[in-house]
Specification:
OB fold (Dihydrolipoamide Acetyltransferase, E2P), elongated, 6-stranded antiparallel beta sheet, 2 domains, Rossmann fold, binds adenosine-5'-triphosphate, 24% helix
Length: 363
């Protein structure tokens, strides 16, 4: 039982680099998620950990053991795949017991472990069924039971929910999370679904083009993105183009009064300010406030969603999505209205041209 260290792992296919020196430490018992768009290298990294691929350079340590030098079958790892990967000619119980056979577990022990794993994933009573007589959700439960039956040190899951419908996905997601916590198995989970990642993970690594861009707990990933990519990939984010010439600060195509506190917090040159729709507040009047920036725009579109309304606001040279509660029918903004919104400094994220992002800092 120990930490997993991924040290400067690189991998390329032909001449195309897919992993550019990944460094990660995954803690004992942690639910750790690799989150990123299609093609960013998540599966490749998982396959390196499982032993299906050799890295070009770098190493993987599980405690003091050099994992990357062991063949796949000698690594103490359980794996759950997107397409279930159950054997169609074996029953549920035989599928779950498959990994135990190879580990020369006695048949009495095997029956016990299979039974225990079936209970954990709620497959009781289905031991003799063939996979063709199971739903997609049940087949993935078999995949999960097979992976945990061997009591691995490490559990790897590659988009295990993507073939299931939305309702089942949420249900099984919560079950996987509960089961992982109960068993305490260090788990690395791959997904491109940011909501899924936020819901299940202890920590998330946001990957982009073969690089680990930010590794943090879900709250920090969402509230304090460290790169522009992380800001844009997780949740919805507004980006406002800005340019600070020293003499004037341009926000979109508007020049801002030089005396405004915002200018003192911005670097010289071009950059973007980012803010989430739910952090923008509709205010009355256009007066500047010391703790934020007030601007006016024209309502281009409103979408009423019951507990909130989404407003697309057109400004000079950019637009903002505003997500706000509706206190009363009277306060519902209509298309064409001019309204004022307040962007609190505390929620503005500075995005630098080199891709870094961070909180606004008084300079
Ligand atoms: P997805 O969510 O679509 O599975 P991913 O983030 O898991 O994406 P990978 O499967 O790791 O991405 O693939 C990363 C890149 O490497 C992609 O451009 C892919 O086409 C390429 N790639 C993966 N496996 C191979 C291979 N065996 N040979 C050549 N290129 C490959």
């Amino acid at each position: 039982m120990s930490e997993l260290h991924i040290l400067s792992v690189t991998k390329q296919f032909g001449t195309v680099p897919v992993l550019h020196g990944i460094d990660l430490v995954i803690r004992q018992g942690e639910f750790f998620t690799l989150l990123g768009p299609s093609g960013c290298g998540k599966t490749t990294l998982l396959r390196v950990l499982a032993g299906f691929l050799m890295p070009d350079s770098g190493s993987v340590m599980l405690g003091r053991q050099r994992l990357d030098l062991l063949p796949a079958h000698q690594r103490d790892i359980g794996m759950v795949f997107q397409d279930y990967a159950v054997f169609p000619h074996l029953t549920v119980a035989e599928n779950i017991g498959f990994g135990l056979k190879a580990r020369s577990v006695s048949s009495a022990q095997m029956r016990e472990r299979v039974q225990e794993a079936m209970q954990m994933v709620q497959l009781d009573g289905l031991a003799d069924r063939l996979p063709s007589a199971l739903s997609g959700g049940q087949q993935q439960r078999v995949g999960l039971a097979r992976a945990i039956a061997i009591r691995p040190q490490l559990l790897l899951m590659d988009e295990p929910l993507s073939n299931l419908d939305a309702k089942l996905r949420t249900e099984l997601r919560d079950e996987i999370r509960d089961l992982q916590k109960r068993l305490g198995i260090t788990t690395i989970y791959v997904t491109h679904d940011q909501e899924e990642a936020l819901a299940v993970s202890d920590r998330i690594c946001v990957m982009n083009r073969g690089r680990a861009e930010q590794t943090d707990d879900p709250f920090t990933i969402y509230s304090a993105p460290a790169t522009r990519f992380a800001a844009s990939f997780v949740g919805t984010m507004n980006f406002i183009p800005c340019d600070n010439h020293g003499a004037s600060l341009r926000i979109g195509q508007d020049g801002l009064a030089q005396t405004h506190a915002l200018q003192g917090m911005c670097p010289r040159g071009a950059f973007e300010l980012a803010i989430r729709p739910e952090h923008i507040e509709i205010v009355s009047g256009t007066d500047s406030r010391p703790d934020g920036y007030v601007l006016q725009g024209r309502v281009e579109k409103t979408v009423y969603l019951g507990r909130e309304v989404q407003i697309k606001l057109a400004l000079n040279g950019y637009s903002l999505l505003v997500q706000t509660p509706v206190p009363s029918r009277r306060n519902l903004a209509r298309e064409g209205d001019r309204i004022s919104v307040w962007l609190p400094f505390a929620h503005l994220v500075m995005c630098h041209p080199d891709g870094r992002a961070g909180a606004l800092q008084p300079s």
